[in-house]
Amino acid sequence: MRRNLTALLASLLVAAAPLLNVGSAAQAQNGPLRIEITDGVIEPLPYAVPSFLAETPAAAELANQITRVIAADLSGTGLFREIPATAHISTVSDFNAPVRFADWKAVNAQALITGSVSVNGKQLTVRFRGYDVFADNELGAGLQFSGTTDGWRRMAHKVADAIYSRITGESGYFDSRVVFVSETGPKNDRRKRLAIMDYDGAGVQYLTNSSALVLAPRFSPTGDRVLYTSYESGFPQIHVLDVGKVQRRVLSADKGIMSFAPRFAPDGNTVVYSQAEGGNTDLYTMDIATGARQRLTRAPSIETAPSYSPDGSQIVFESDRSGTPQLYVMPATGGEARRISFGKGRYGTPVWSPRGDLIAFTKQSKGRFHIGVMRLDGSEERLLTASFLDEGPSWSPNGRVIMFTRETQGANGRALLYSVDILGRNLKPVRTPDGASDPAWSPLQK
Amino acid sequence: MGLQTGTKISLAAHGLLVSWVAFGAWLPSEPLPLPVQEVAVISAEEFARLSQQIQAPEVSESPSPLTAPATSPEPPEVSVRPETRPDTSTPQSTPAPVEEAPVPTPPEPEPEPELAETLPVPEAPTESPAVIPSLPVPEQLRPADRVAPVPVEAPEEEVAIDDLVQPEVSPDEGALSEQEVQEATAPEAASDRIVTEANENEEAEPTPPVTAPVTSVRPKPRPSRPAPSAVAETPPSTPQTEQASAIEDALAAAIGGGGEVAAPEPSGPPLTVGEKDALRVSVSKCWNVGSLSTEALKTTVEVSVSLEADGRPKNGSIRMVSSTGGSAGAAKQAYEAARRAIIRCGAKGFSLPSEKYDHWRDIVMTFNPEKMRIK
Fold first, then answer.
1. What is the pTM (predicted TM-score) of this model?
2. Is the ipTM of this complex over 0.90?
3. Strands A123-132, A137-138: pairing kind
4. Helices B242-262 and A2-30: crossing angle, nearest 10°?
5. Is B88 an interface residue toward A (CB < 8 Å)?
6. Counting Cβ atoms within 10 Å, is residue B367 exposed (0-12), middle (13-18) or buried (19+)?
7. Those residues with Cβ within 8 angstroms of residue B50's Cβ, 6 or more apart along the chain or in another chain
8. Which of B88, B116, B270 minimises the CB distance to A364?
9. A202 in contact with B at a CB cutoff of 8 Å?
């Protein structure tokens, strides 16, 4: 009996073995091997930018300066790491000559930027190409910028913007400016003036003198005008300044009424701001052309720091209606507001991201100040910084970086500008000649 | 009538047996060893006390209060607040109420930088800002730390950065044959998550050691029967233990061995889970998503690649099969990052078993950045 059973099992196994093999063979033949990769690394992408070629003798110095500005722009993002020229194996002696990719792979350059500069009188021409080294091909077509020699920094920023965009897939932010409040003098006698500079701190120019306290400048959507609050009349009033002509005018001139915290609507024609009247602060809008006003909130609490969504349909603002300052969102025409911040602490100065997906804010918690970001519904709150006093976030034109004010403690403490990316990486100071606060980032220049 | 021979023998044997039983005691024999154990004489009180310890201790119905452990008089005060805090009632940069408004100061006699009469019109690059030397890159307070799947401690300074860990090898003095010098290498330092200024202290603050048991130890379950071998026939996608890999190896080898009989073409055994994991890890090391846009970080791409027999990718064969979750532009960026990963980490050939080349000649790799968005 047992012998018969063993024989039966053996015959079944023998019969099944070919079937198993056919199945595995079919698996091997039918399709490629499939694997899923979910873990990667986050590190700066190594790139090489050999000094741009000077096609004319007069271009030699500018070629080197332009190369350095491009490298500073890219490396300053924290997303890229320049491979120093001393490590280069290849040299680029002809802008149109084929690139020896093997030499750049050998130094692990994953991107390569080559360029040439020519100067003819005051006319400056910059040509460049980007390469994906490990793919042995170009990163898009080569481009050429022309302008005057005085504008060489902007041309360098434009080249860096193009490279940044081709590698990351999002627009750059290097050809942009920042308006801010320049601060000099001790804490108890601080003098403040409006100033404007390139995003990287170069080319600082002053827009007002220090005869009156100025606060919270904000760029218009086209970057040609700036709103700010001035104490020139003895109490806060909103001014608008034409950046090109450096001409200004008072926007709200009602005596005895304080108006502050202004910000442009995305259409550039309307301003939303806070107005304090009879001990109560509410939000208003004003048509810049006609001066017509509309009251958006009617609450006994303090409503301030309004900021439009990029499509202009909603406003995020700060209110202490719940007892402590928190963030709220309401329709741009006013109406019911919904609270979006629920963490422990006090929230203020909300600013809507130009991408529309995040809101940056200042948070005070446990005696420290933070710059943070959250989703529009208040979820995924992420604190990016922590210090004695951080406040006043402003978004880069592409919504990837936040610039803010950091003030150090003590009698000799001073305010400086800092920037950090939205993941909390690459925290660094922005160089300014003096103390600086209240930065407002312009859109990309045309 | 004489007795039969069998009966005689039986009578003789029985006689001998009876004789041995009757007279056996006279035969010499060794006495059996008797175990001897020393004992102590104890008193009746001691015996009673020993007997009491066996009994269960009495338990009071109501628990008695515990005495608090000895601690320092007061816990150390943790000061996180700055010495002089700013007024926290108005954290925003809006102006203070009117009564606190500072009086504008008159123009200072000291010279100020000249105001710009006109600023360059923000048009094309024809504007004319003052030409100044380029600024050095500002010092980064927090370096852009490398984030990798597995945290890596910072290597020693003189160690070269490489994915492969290998010790330094210097030639022996006086060696007759030429010896190859090997430079010490170690992977670059990395964290397994992004550390911001706001959360870096979370790591620095040591957590007090927990000494008390959190849960009671449950009794060990009865050993279960070995799982049926069907588990190995459907390998799960998650990484397996060594045991699982070994089972797969054995099964793959067994199936491969029989393939000589029925397989239509030469075909090695399929890749084990362990071998697939090794390939996955190899590509992961070079998949750098740090420079991708946020939209590209939401885009999953499927990339196909053909490999040479030595494990090196054929660069011309790399192409995007499909993408999900992002625009065409984002998919392009995601694909380029994936392609760089395959080419860079495959430059020396992926470590794959050559006898299974038929199974990894063509590969489709899915790059899913979901876990990398906010690491």
1. 0.71
2. no
3. antiparallel
4. 90
5. yes
6. buried
7. B42
8. B88
9. yes
